[in-house]
Fold this protein.
Amino acid sequence: MLFAVATMVALWLQTEVRLWLPAGAVFPDLVLILVVDLGLKQHNALSPALAFAIGYATDAFSGTHLGLNAFMMTLIFLLSYELSRHVWVTGKLIEPLTVALADLLNRLGVMAITGGLATVTNIKSSTMRLLVVQALITAGAALLIFALLDAGKRALRLPVRVAAE
Amino acid sequence: MQDPKDTFLWRNRVALAGGVLLLLAAHMLSSGVRQGNTLARPQGLVAEALRPFQAASARMAHSAGDLFHHYFRLAHIAQDNERLREELAQLNQRQARMVELELENRRLAELLDLKEAIDLKMVAADVIGSDATGMARTLILSQGSSAGLQPGMGVIATGGVVGKLIAASRSASRVMLLNDHNCAVDAFVQRSRARGIVSGVADDGVIMRYVERTADIKVGDAVVTSGLDGVFPRGLLIGSVSAIERKGPGLFLNIAIRPAADLRNLEQVLVIVQAPPHLADSGTS
């Protein structure tokens, strides 16, 4: 429920704020932060379904191919999940770093799927710079969003982290 | 007896569930799920759920813009007379609102002129949202299938062609803009009749593809719809040629187009709900 509400608020902010921002301005990908939170902290069987649903809901407001965001969000969930199980140790720096990498992967992945691999290999340096800035801004926003989500979980008496058995 | 929690399936249930859902998403993506399909139906519900909030916040943003503007206009006025200031504030707010109404009226009048100039049934819609991730060039409109809107319909504004509808729920819809790299509009250069396909590019901008290298094209030439795609009527302005790349190998020219419609600042658009008359390909090239 917390993630459903958070997703709707994130989508509302992303569709509305982006509309009023000047051309070229970047806005953090809030939905992606929610999925990374799921991957890093919520290791139960419902989490991949939530990640898929978040991506599917994003498909209603973004992109031209139905299933594209569902695919990317599920993939990012799985990668975050596997990384948190096998590689990562939790830490205040690691979480936003994961978000930044996930944001880059998401954008390059979407470009490759919709425009072909050549779109990624022939990417302009100015576009790549913009993608990196976007990833860093999303990572910066992740600190706040993670704190809000953790506070929300505590308020609803939900565990902040659910480890797989 | 083996503990069910000690089995491979249980231990890897998260990854396995994720993998199954990843395959489902890949299936949706590769099979090109369309509107009306079972897999696409819940999407309409999601769009409908958020639509009232988007419409309300679009209105609030207009009002907030007025207030912001109003605040700065008042900042330099003498602070000593509270009553006069309040009166002035009210008048200014009313005036700002009237200016906004006048601008809206002008935009709608221009849309009406356009609507009358094109002899096809059209529906006016407000822009109430942008693409959620910014990775595609799409906008959310305030009208949906209840107003007769369907995916595939053409969208125009006072400047010219805007894009095509790609999804429609009951009271909201989504338009893929001309500068999205998945958009394609059959077009020709008005002066020389050289034909090509206008589409967006992944980085940014709009180009005209598949124009023969020998075609007579100059910077500033108007590019209009050909009417052959069955989406737009013939002769609608798309934009003008801003650059021509003649170097390099290949059969075709690379032509950059400056869109006539201001795709970054759209507030109201018209959706062509009536199919334009079918044109046989007359071989204009």
DSSP finds four helices and twelve strands in chain B. Chain B touches chain A through 59 residues (CB under 8 Å). Residues 44-119 of chain B form one domain.
